Each structure stands twice: as C-alpha cells, then as structure tokens.
Amino acid sequence: MYVPWLLNFIQKIYYFHFTDPLEQDAGKFYVLYFILVTKFSDTGAYAIGSLIGKHKMIPRISPGKTWEGFGGAILVATLASFIFYKVAGRNSPA
Q1: ∠57-58-63 over CA atoms, to 5°?
Q2: DSSP conformation class of 18
Q3: Under DSSP, is residue 15 helix (H, G, I), strand (E, B) or coil?
Q4: Distance between first and last Cα of the chain
Q5: Hey, CA dihedral for 61, 63, 78, 10, is it positive or negative?
Q6: Is residue 40 within 8 Å of residue 78, measured between CB atoms?
Q7: Which carries the bigger pLDDT value, residue 25 or residue 10?
Q8: Do residues 16 and 32 lie in contact, with contact meaning Cβ atoms separated by under 8 Å?
Q9: Which of the four, 13, 20, 34, 69, has the lowest number of CB atoms within 10 Å?
Q10: What DSSP string describes 11-73?
C-alpha cells in the first residue's frame, strides 16, 4: 500500500491541470524536478553523513542517521534545485 500510494503522487503531478494552455507540458518538468531534488537529497545525506557525520540523530530508531547528513541533504538538494532552475529556467513552464 505504501509504494503505490506514494507513486500516485507522481501521476498527480504529471497530469496536474494547468489553466494556461502554454503550460501543458509542465507536468513533465515538475516530475523531473521532484526526482532530481529527491535523488540529490539522498546523495548529499549519504556523502556528507558518511564523511563527517559524528552526531547521531536518533540512534535507537536509525543508527546511521546523523545531523551532519541531514544538513548535507538540505544543502545539496537546495544547490541542485538552484542549478536546475538556472539551467532549465528559460525552458521551465513557470
């Protein structure tokens, strides 16, 4: 139930109804953006957390998660989002 429910959001983003007829392909852009930011967030959390992670977040629940990894996820995802906006900004529907 968990995986199909979350994958349903990709379909909703892809087929989101836009009022402007020039934004008909906006769903593809937003799905690509969603996947890009998610993947870079995971990559940043793993890279920064494994390199400099010392302070455990909740060791009882997830022993590998660190606060440094959390910061790395936010930093790398924000940087990837900014770069994607600069590269695809003129082609973006918004």
Answers
A1: 95
A2: P
A3: coil
A4: 33
A5: negative
A6: no
A7: 10
A8: no
A9: 20
A10: HHHHTPPPSSGGGTTHHHHHHHHHHHHHHHHHHHHHHHHHHH--SEEETTTEEEEEHHHHHHH
Q: Match 């940043």 to its residue by tokens.
A: 44
58 pairs with which residues across the strands? Answer: 62
Six-digit token string for 76: 């790398």
Question: Both tokens of residue 34?
Answer: 């969603």
Coil/strand/helix, residue 90: coil
Report the predicted TM-score, pTM, of the whole model to 2 decimal places: 0.78
- The residue whose two tokens read 């009022």 is 19
Q: In the numeric block, which tokens belong to residue 42?
A: 């995971």
Length of the chain: 94
Place of tokens 């892809």: 14
Long-range contacts of 5-8 (CB under 8 A, 24+ apart): none
Provide φ and ψ at 57, rounded to 5°. Answer: -80, -65
